[in-house]
Amino acid sequence: MREHMYNLRRLEVLCELKHRGTLAAVAAAMSYSPSAVSQQLTLLESEVGASLLERDGRRVRLTPQAEILVAHTKTVLQQLDRARTEIAASLHERTGTLRVAAFQTAMLTLVPAVLTWLRAAHPGIRIEATQAEPDTALPALLARDLDLVVDETFPGHPHLTGEAELSHHVLREDLMRLAVRDTAVRSLPELARHPWVMEPLGTPARQWAESLCHAAGFEPDVAFESADMLVHARLATQGHAVAFLPDLLWADNAPDVPLLQPERVHRRTIWVTLRAASADHPLVRTVLSGLRHAAEQAEEAISRHLGNNNQ
Fold it and tell me: 1, 76, 227, 270: least CB-packed within 10 angstroms?
């Protein structure tokens, strides 16, 4: 029996297909043409001696043999992550690039603070940051397009993606306060007949907010939908809608809309998520320290800005 050495790049193509689902998405992610991706997978099938793909309508799905190969490839890639970590730890200088994604309010407040901190303490570290919600950022982290993600979860909606491969670190508990122009309102049930602004359907934030309204005995009148918290704040400030607004939004400025004192369940958890095999990489640990520093600064600023606002 002739043994074949599997090509690591082709194995990575197969893993990308597992994460991204289509040849076109893999081609875009890896800067290949779709035909080149198909060719790489055909060559890998030849090396393996088994079919790796099956047609599923207009898409393709992995065969059981391909799933076995993907599982072992993930182990190899994790070992390479550990090797990079050990090499970086053996060097004295902290230099290099870290690719970061963060959801909107973290991108507005925490990321700039980290950049300022790094510029003073570790000027050799470059951050490439993009704004992305967890449902796209976490798969990109698993696919190695990113090195670190600042993400959020809501009660009843825990992390579900790649738990065995990812490491989650709590950054802060962020209260979600009700913003309502009508100062006579004192509790959530009183808002049954008010128009609301919420995040789009299907998002954890929307599901969480609607579940709270249902528990209070009413179906919210969602007149406005937006993924932009600044839009939520503007509509609430001008009295057009009621909104749940996160405390992190007030790290830089005091709110100009009354905020109801939240109940214990009115919160989200902000996390830093990274691949477990890279958790000890010096750049990752440094940026994680920077994010914790930024979160502490934000906490102090939020306390100042909300001091006289709560009803």
Answer: 1
Q: Are residues 140 and 215 in the same domain?
A: no
Provide the 3-class DSSP secondary structure of residue 152: strand
Give the model confidence (pLDDT) of 157-186 as tens digits: 887 655 678 999 999 999 999 999 988 888
263 in the same domain as 178: yes
* Cα dist from 149 to 8, 142, 163, 167, 270, whole Å: 26, 11, 14, 10, 10
Q: How many CB atoms lie within 10 A of CB 17?
A: 23
**Range 244-265 average pLDDT:** 90
CATH number at residue 281: 3.40.190.10
And the tokens for 221? 């009148």
Residues 275, 279, 280, CA angle at the centre, nearest 5°? Answer: 150
Residue 17: inside a domain: yes
Q: Which residue has the higher pLDDT, 2 or 240?
A: 240
Same domain, 290 and 156: yes
Closest to 134 measured CA to CA, from 174, 105, 175, 109? 105
Domain of 158 in residue numbering reads as 94-173+269-303
The pLDDT of residue 1: 39
Q: What is the mean pLDDT of residues 74-93?
A: 76
Write down the pTM of the prediction.
0.77
Contacts of 283 (CB under 8 A, 6+ apart): 88, 94, 96, 98, 125, 147
